[in-house]
Amino acid sequence: MQERVRRARRKAGLSQAGLADLLKVRRSAVSNWESASEVRPSMQNMVAIAHACRVSIEWLGTGRGAMAMEPELEEIPAADAELVDERDERELLAAYRDLPRRSQRLVLELALALQAGRRGGRLA
Prior knowledge:
7 helices; elongated
């Protein structure tokens, strides 16, 4: 379970302190949950971790099932969906989606900077 708590937190782009703040616990509690100790989060904290990190409570607690929570119907941007036909685009999108939020932001900023540089004639 320790590794699943760590994976969920990292996938959500949260530090131990950030997750602790969201759950209103001490950072040392999160550290203990992620360590090899026998300390486990309470059921209330398990639910809070799953919610904060957007992972399945079943996966978090048992390792069974999919890691990601099923999105709510109203969270699916079907009207804004784009069809991605190019293999490179699909690979880039899959890699982007697998990154923590903070890293996603950096990738987006890099892509926008490259795009702006190209428009300005600085990149070939």
